[in-house]
Amino acid sequence: MKDFILIALMMLVTFGVRYPVLAFVGRMNLPQWVQRALKFVPVAVLTALCAPIVLVAEGEINLSINNAYLVASVVAILIAWKTRHLLLTILSGMAVYVFWRTVMGA
Asked: What averages of pLDDT result for each successive group of 10 residues across the chain (106 residues)?
């Protein structure tokens, strides 16, 4: 029961901090340069979440061929760039990751 209460309180705090800003900004016209800048927010957040997972292993930067996360990410980036097909990108990235972990034993 304590876990449920904790999760509910975290949800309320998160919602309480973000909703007023969204409600306020939704009623006003933002300058064009702000709207252009906001288009980069999802990419920046996703990069900030993924980069440590892909590049850091055991507390150190790992750019070797043994890093399955890095190899799979590079393959997924290349496939996404060439095909622009989301499902193909995800499936191929996961397949390369599983294959690399199995073959390289990383």
From this structure: 93 92 83 92 94 90 92 96 96 96 81
Contact status, residue 53 vs residue 69, Cβ threshold 8 Å:
yes
Helix (H, G, I), strand (E, B) or coil at 69: helix
CA separation for the pair 33, 37 (Å, rounded): 6
Rounded Cα gap, residues 94 and 97, in angstroms: 5
Rg, the chain, Cα only: 20
Which two three-digit tokens encode residue 77? 């980036």
Pair of tokens at residue 18: 């973000």
Q: Determine the residue type at 22.
A: L
Q: Model pTM greater than 0.85?
A: no
